[in-house]
Amino acid sequence: MQELAKIGVIGCGWFAQAVHLPILRRLPRTELIALAEPDPHQRQAAAHRVPMARLYADYRELLNLQDLEAVIVSVPTAFHAEVAIAAMRQGKHVYLEKPIAPSLGEADKIMSVWNQAGVAGMVGFNYRFNALHREARMRIQAGKLGPLIGARSVFSAPMRSMPAWKQTRLTGGGALLEMASHHIDLVRFLFQQEVQTVYAEVRSQQTEHDTAMLQLQLENGLRVQSFFSLCALNEDRFEIYGQAGKLTVDRYHSLDAEIVDAMETPSRLHGATRWLSLLRRAPYALKKLRSPWHEPSYREALSSFTAAVRGSGKVSPDLLDGYRSLKVIEAAEESARSGRVVSLSS
Question: 346 lies in a domain?
Answer without folding.
Answer: no
